[in-house]
Amino acid sequence: MKLRRVEWPTVLLAIACTIAWLAIIYGVGVFGYWWLAPVGVLLITLHSSLQHEALHGHPTNDRRINEALVFLPIGLIYPYRRFRVLHLKHHNDELLTDPFEDPESYYMCPRKWAEAAPVMQAIRRFNNTQVGRLVIGPALSIIGLIRQDWKLIQIGDRDVRNAWILHLIGFVPVFAWVSLVCGIDPILYFIAFAYPGLSVLSIRTFIEHQAKEATGNRTIVNEDRGLFAFLFLNNNLHFVHHRNPTVPWYRLPRLYRQNRVQFLAENDGYFAKNYWQVFRSYALKAKEPVEHPLMAAGRWRAPKGAEAPAIETPLGMSSQATP
Residue 190 has what DSSP assignment? Predict the structure, then answer.
C-alpha cells in the first residue's frame, strides 16, 4: 500500500509514549523509584488512547503501520485486534447502549436483570457509580471479554483466536522488559500498573453514553481541558468523535469550538463541564440504571435486520479502551 498520509503529531506521540514507558518501568524496577509508578499508569492510559486512534485509521492510511505503532500490549489486557473489531461495531450509533449489540454497553436487558442474583445486582449497581467503575469496572470488563472470546474460540472463530495469539506474542517483549530487565514481578505489574491504567480510562467511559430514543442524544460532550483531556486524546469530546471518527485527536477541539452550538443542539445538551463535575455528582451515586430503561419500558427498537445474539456483549469493552 502506498503511504499517502502521515499525521506526525500522532506518530511522534506514539514513539514518545513507548520510550517514556520503557524509561519509567526501568526506573521503578531497577532503582526502586515507586513514586514513578503513577506516571507509568498514566502512560498506559495514553497508550490505550493511541490504540483507539490507530483503529480509526490514524496516523497513516496503512493499517499495518498504525497497528505496529501501538502493538506492544503494555496494558496487558485487551488484544488490539479484538479492541478494533468491537469498538468499530460500537460506532453504529443506531445500536448504541443495546446490551446485545453494543460491545461497550453497561446496561443489562430486563430479563437478564430480573434473573440476576441479588449479590450480582448489587455489584452491577455499584459498578454504575464512578467509584465502582474505578474499583471493579476493569475486573468485570476483563471477565466479560475473556468469557465471550473463549466461547468464540471454542466454536472455531479464527479471527478471535488469531487476535489472542498475536496478543500473547506481544507479551514476550513486554514481560522480557518488565520482568527480566527491570525485575518487576508480572503480577505486581498487573496490580500496580495495568489494572490502574484501565481504572483511569474508565473515568472517560463512565460518562460517555446514555440510553435515549434519539440516537444523537446518547453521546456526551465533556469540555474538560486538563490532564484527562490529553490522556484521552480529546475523546472527552465524545459526541464530536462519534460524528467525525476519521478526524485526528489534535483537530477535535478546534472542530468543536467552531461548531459548539450545533453539536450541543444535536445531542440535546448532553454535556459536562469537566471530569471533576462528574465525580462530584456520581462518585457513589449511579449515573444510569443497570436495566436498560428503554427496553424495560418497551420503547427500544433496534434497526431492521439487527438480531439479538444468544449472549450479551462484553461488559464495557470500551475500557481499552478503551483503548
Answer: I
Residue-level pLDDT at 312: 54
What residues are paired with 219 via a beta bridge?
A: 209
Grid cell at residue 10: 500522532
**Alpha carbon distance 221, 214 (integer Å):** 16
Q: Which residues contact residue 94 at a Cβ distance below 8 angstroms, ignoring those fewer than 6 apart?
A: 215, 302, 303, 306
Q: State how far Cα 212 lies from the chain centre.
A: 21
pTM over 0.70: yes
Question: How far, in Å, CA of 79 to CA of 95, rounded?
Answer: 23
CA distance 142 to 287: 21
Query: Would you tell me the crossing angle of helices 275-282 and 195-205 to the nearest 10 degrees?
Result: 90
The domains of the chain are located at: 8-300
CA pair distance 47, 73, nearest whole angstrom:
9
User: What pLDDT, on the 0 to 100 scale, is given for residue 2?
Assistant: 78
Q: Is the dihedral of CA 293, 296, 299, 302 positive or negative?
A: positive
Contact 73, 79 (CB under 8 A): yes
Query: Consecutive 10-residue runs of the chain (323 residues): their mean pLDDT?
Result: 88 98 97 96 98 97 96 96 96 94 94 96 97 97 95 96 97 97 97 98 96 95 96 98 97 98 96 96 96 93 51 48 33
